Amino acid sequence: MYGKASAPEYQGALTTLSVNSSLVDVLAAGTERLAAAERAGERAEVARSGLAVAEAHRRLGQVREADLAWKASYRAARDAGDVAAMAWALWSGGTLARQRGAFPLARRLLGLAADLGERGGDVVVRGYSLAGLAETGRIQGDYEAVGRLHEQLLAEARRRGEARHTVWALEGIAQMHRNSGDLDTAHALFEEAAEISARADDRRGHAWALRGLADVVSIRDGDTERALALLSEAETTCRAMNLTGALAYNHKMRGNVLYRAARYAEARDLYERALAEFGAMSEPRGKALARLGLAKSLARLGRDRSETAKELTALAGELERIGLRHAREMVDRAEQELGIGTDPAGPRCVTAEAVR
């Protein structure tokens, strides 16, 4: 049995905030409490309220502000001798690094956060940090290395009845099955994640689960209209909570669904929209994947083949730079699908799949 989802990253005087609180409201409350704590010289509270500010900025796509906020939270926690708060700040910084495509930095910060969480006796931040490490590896396509960790974290979350982390783990495992071609298992796991998140009132987790379901329904069943309906339901939540990143990925997925349905002009418009949204939040992974979808849509709409070939070559280099190891299959499939042919310079060590 799962209880109502909670938001352990909202701490100190901000524990009354809900997991479903609008990020604009979280930022306002966090900023106000942070200023009051600074005036009072309460370093521990500065660290805790600063964490909420950092997370609100990150989820709103405000990268520079998020970077400044998590570092300030860490310094305040260090000054206060609060090891667990230091771990939470490092978790936020590591999550931001992953969002920015800085995967080595993400692994380093999240690893430190997990260690400090254990030292500080905070099993929640330790779990969140290990989950962050697992998600980083999954995004890079290193399924063998992180698959067991996902399963371990899922078992722990189920045992403790933590709905939010159970949903996260289910979605991650489902995505790996989807990318490996096991669509039936992926559908079942995304469906379970959607059911648990709905019962636990975890609207963010529910929006991500609906996005995953829409993807599988589109591929496996060819049911374009149901997929679009699921994405529309998820988009309503994204807008209500100001989930900037989730909304951009929702739009990119809508582009994917429309492309599969041969509605190329509509797909082009959605990819362009997502590309602008990812660009505004400095999200290189999403930006590269939106560019790939846009290149394919434009090719279908009559773009010159040489221009498409150049775009795919550039994307291959970008995906390699980001560190998405399994992106080569996507680029190769795009070339084959569009009849572009293989790069005469030889194979490229790149690829990726859109996971979040």
TrEMBL record:
SUPFAM superfamilies: TPR-like
Xref: Pfam families: TPR_12 (PF13424)
InterPro entries in the record: TPR-like_helical_dom_sf (IPR011990)
Protein name as annotated: Tetratricopeptide repeat protein
Organism: Streptomyces phaeoluteigriseus
